[in-house]
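Entry 14. Ran structure prediction on the chain below.
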Amino acid sequence: MTQPATFSADELEDGARAATGLDDFGSDYYREGLERTLDGLNTEAQLNDLGRVIQHATLSNALIQRLKIVDTYKQHPEIDDEVVAGPVVILGLPRTGTTALGQLIANDPQFRSLRTWESQAPTPPPETATQHTDPRIAQAAEGIAMIDTMFPDFKTMMSSEAEAATECQDLMGMSFRTYHFDGVVRVPSYTSWLMDTDMRETYTFHRQVLKLLQWRCKPNLWHLRTPVHMFAVDAFVEAYPDAKFLWSHRDPVKVLGSVCSLISYVRSWSSDRKDPHELGAEQLAWWAEGVRRAMEFRRTFGDDRFVDVSFADLQADSVATVADAYEKLGLTFDAGARAKVQAWAAGHQPGHRGTHDYELADFGLTEDQVREAFADYLATYDASA
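Output, structure tokens:
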């Protein structure tokens, strides 16, 4: 049943305080994002009963984790002395092999990845001795299993494991400024606001979380991934001046149909509203803008911190593609790392989770429309596969 949602920022904050016994959310930067989020949920998202439960849980956890992170820093201010190395960041349009590339690199011991379980609950800070037995791993695995049971087609579209590398949406969500939100509910006013908002403090908090995560569980070099960093590469680099990027490329015609199909499916969990042509038009415009911004940054500040990765090469020989990217980044790829990456690749061949079927036309888009929107991108990079 679809009824207007009535989320209240004050009530959600009071609930988080009650759940933790804490009351300091840190900088009030997060509050505008929270209010914009709730306005979209209350007036645009048309949530069903399950959607209200899902969104309440998501928002509550973001506030709870923010409280706990701020409190941990109060108790241990020395955490702020931690230095985040790198990171090496995988970006590119969604559905371009960013997940596979990320998991390949995550299996190289020289990297420290953001793992699903610690992304969802960063506190207490993980420790080296218990990082593979922490009870939060089982909790995250239970959540993933529940989603697989309730929404069985999801695993053919996205790979999710409790100890595997994940995207940065939870960390960005703690500042209530993340494009991932658009992927689970339709809130165009929020997304339009996000396009023009200042993301610098979002990435400052993001860095604080990484410092906390490495405090007692040291990394060698951080590896991160998420397509949405394309929208604010400048703010990301301000927080991480030594960041380098692996940019995965694939034909946007193939990308957009897959993106729209995934978002349509995930949004159906929280709302019964469907308008595939509207979805197609919005996703085309937003992702074309994300690519434009990333290209503008690259043209302004140079190619030195970017390495291009072809989806076709990744599909044909993933290990060789990783080796080539490492060479261009100036990283080592010794026999031990190669063996671990090769083992993961052997067990995760394309299509091993089933097939994901979709048609671009189902979302009111044509190949010509997509190629026109991405004309500059297609003229600049090898994205023909």
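The longest strand covers residues 244-249. Will compare against last week's run tomorrow.
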